[in-house]
Q: What sequence folds into this?
C-alpha cells in the first residue's frame, strides 16, 4: 500500500503541482473580491478531481494492468486513490480555512462559525465530485467512466428541473441552517465512504 | 514441485475462446508459449495472474491456487508485460523506491546491479526511454525481488538483436538456480528456441502441443525430396507437405522415414509454421 501511495505522490508532484499554485492564486483573489465565493470554492472543487486525473494517467501508462501483477489487492489499489483524495482535500480545506480566517480577521474580526460554515460547504462540494466520478471509472475505465458521469449529471439536472416545475410552492424546512450544514457534511462523508466501497466492488469484478 | 500447472482452463469471449488448456511448467525449467498474434498467449498469462476471470479450470502456481493466494503468490512471481506499465513520469530511482515499498523481498543491491548492467539512466523519466530501455527496466524490477517464477509476455518483442541477446542471457542465468522457472510468451520463435526447455504451441485458443524442445527436435525433421519419393513414404511419417515446382519439402517423423533418405534438422520456428498450416 505504501508503494502505491508513494507512486501517486510522485505523480502528483509532477502533474498536479500547478494545482497548488493555482489554488493559492485563487485564494489570494478571494481577498480582493469578497462578494464572490467562486474563488473560495473553485480550488477545492478541482482538488476533488486529483484522484480522477491520477487514475486517467494510470490508465494511459497501463499501470492498472501492471499493478494487477504486483502484490496488491484490488481493494488496496482503489483505496490508494481515495486516500490521495482525502489527503488533497484536507490540505486544500486547511489552506482555505487559513485564508478565510485571515480574510475575516482583516475585515470584521475573526468568526470561527463563519469559517466552519465555509469549510463544511467546501467539504461537501469537494467530496461529491470524486465520489460520483470514481466508481464509474473503476467500473468502466476512464473514457467510458467520464461519459457515464456526464450522462448522470445530465440526468440529475433534468430531474431537478422537472421537480422544480412540479413543486410550485417552495418547500419550507423547519431546520436551523448550521444543523443543515452539519447534516450535509455528514452526508458528503457518507457518500465518499459509499463511493469508496462501490469502487472496490466494481474494481474487483473488472477484467484488466 | 511444478512451478505452474494449468488444468482444463477455459475462457470465452464473443469472438475468441481459450479452449480447455492444459500446461505444466516443471520447476527449474523454461517454457516458451508460442503462437501467432491473437492465439491466446496474453489471455493465458492474464488468467494465470488472475487479471481476468476464468470460466473453468484450475491454475496452480508454486503449489498454490492462483486466486486463493493471490497476494502471496505475486510476491514470488516477477512479471513483464508487453507494455511495461510503469508510470511515465517516474525515474529509475523512483521506481526502485516504489518497489521497495511494494515487495517484501525487494533487493535494492540487486536492482542497482541490474540497472548498471543494463545501462539504464538514473534520472531520465520513463516516458523518454526507448522501447528497449522500458523493457529492460521492467525486467530489472521483475528480477529484483527474489522471484521464483518469471512470467514474461512478449518481453523480447521490439528489442534490437543485441539487447534481445543480453536479455535472453539474463533469463538463462536466472534458471541456473533449480528453484527458478520461466514462462515466456513470444511470437519471435528464434528467441524461445535458444532459451526454452519446453515449448507449447497455441493456435486460435487451442493448445497444439506442449513438449520438451529437444525431444521435438529429435522426433521431427525436414525432408527435401521429389514428388515421387514423397508418394513412397508411409502415411504416418509425414505431418505436413509444402510442394514447389522443384519437388517437395515435408515435415516428417524421423522414426517413420525409411533408411536412405536424408532428413535435415528442423527448427522450432519451422515446426510451428508447419503445424499451424496443418491445423488450417
A:
Amino acid at each position: 500500500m505504501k508503494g502505491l501511495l508513494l507512486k501517486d505522490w510522485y505523480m502528483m508532484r509532477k502533474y498536479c503541482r500547478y494545482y497548488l499554485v493555482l489554488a493559492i492564486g485563487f485564494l489570494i483573489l478571494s481577498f480582493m473580491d469578497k462578494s464572490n465565493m467562486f474563488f473560495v470554492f473553485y480550488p477545492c472543487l478541482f482538488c476533488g478531481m486529483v484522484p480522477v486525473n491520477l487514475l486517467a494517467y494510470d490508465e494511459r501508462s497501463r499501470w492498472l494492468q501492471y499493478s494487477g501483477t504486483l502484490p496488491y489487492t484490488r481493494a488496496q489499489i482503489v483505496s490508494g486513490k481515495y486516500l490521495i483524495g482525502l489527503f488533497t482535500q484536507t490540505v486544500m480545506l486547511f489552506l482555505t480555512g487559513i485564508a478565510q480566517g485571515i480574510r475575516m480577521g482583516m475585515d470584521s474580526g475573526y468568526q470561527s462559525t463563519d469559517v466552519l460554515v465555509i469549510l463544511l460547504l467546501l467539504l461537501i462540494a469537494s467530496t461529491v465530485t470524486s465520489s460520483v466520478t470514481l466508481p464509474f471509472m473503476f467500473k468502466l475505465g476512464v473514457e467510458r467512466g467520464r461519459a457515464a458521469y456526464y450522462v448522470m449529471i445530465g440526468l440529475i439536472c433534468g430531474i431537478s428541473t422537472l421537480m422544480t416545475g412540479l413543486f410550485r410552492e417552495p418547500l419550507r424546512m423547519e431546520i436551523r441552517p448550521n444543523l443543515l450544514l452539519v447534516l450535509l457534511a455528514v452526508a458528503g462523508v457518507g457518500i465518499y465512504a459509499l463511493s469508496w466501497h462501490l469502487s472496490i466492488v466494481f474494481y474487483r469484478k473488472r477484467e484488466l | 514441485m511444478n512451478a505452474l500447472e494449468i488444468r482444463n482452463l477455459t475462457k470465452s469471449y464473443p469472438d475468441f475462446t481459450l479452449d480447455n488448456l492444459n500446461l505444466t511448467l516443471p520447476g527449474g525449467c523454461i517454457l516458451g508459449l508460442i503462437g501467432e498474434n491473437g492465439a491466446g498467449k496474453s489471455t493465458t498469462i492474464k488468467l494465470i495472474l488472475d487479471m481476468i476471470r476464468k470460466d473453468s479450470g484450475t491454475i496452480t502456481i508454486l503449489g498454490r491456487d492462483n486466486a486463493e493466494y493471490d497476494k502471496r503468490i505475486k510476491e514470488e512471481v516477477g512479471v513483464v508485460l508487453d507494455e511495461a506499465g510503469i508510470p511515465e513520469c517516474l525515474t529509475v530511482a523512483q521506481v526502485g523506491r516504489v518497489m521497495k515499498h511494494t515487495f517484501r523481498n525487494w533487493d535494492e543491491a540487486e536492482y542497482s546491479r541490474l540497472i548498471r548492467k543494463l545501462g539504464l539512466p538514473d534520472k531520465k523519466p520513463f516516458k523518454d526511454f526507448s522501447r528497449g530501455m522500458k523493457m529492460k527496466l521492467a525486467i530489472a524490477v521483475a528480477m529484483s525481488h527474489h522471484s521464483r517464477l518469471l512470467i514474461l509476455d512478449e518481453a523480447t518483442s521490439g528489442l534490437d538483436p543485441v539487447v534481445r541477446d543480453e536479455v535472453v542471457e539474463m533469463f538463462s542465468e536466472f534458471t541456473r538456480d533449480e528453484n527458478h522457472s520461466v514462462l515466456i510468451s513470444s511470437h519471435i520463435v528464434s528467441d524461445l528456441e535458444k532459451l526454452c526447455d519446453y515449448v507449447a504451441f497455441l493456435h486460435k485458443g487451442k493448445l497444439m502441443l506442449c513438449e520438451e524442445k529437444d525431444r521435438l527436435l529429435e522426433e521431427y525433421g525436414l525432408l527435401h525430396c521429389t514428388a515421387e519419393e514423397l508418394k513412397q513414404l508411409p502415411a504416418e511419417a509425414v505431418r505436413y507437405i509444402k510442394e514447389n515446382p522443384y519437388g517437395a519439402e515435408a515435415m516428417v517423423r524421423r522414426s517413420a522415414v525409411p533408411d536412405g533418405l536424408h532428413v535435415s534438422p528442423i527448427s522450432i520456428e519451422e515446426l510451428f509454421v508447419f503445424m499451424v498450416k496443418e491445423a488450417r
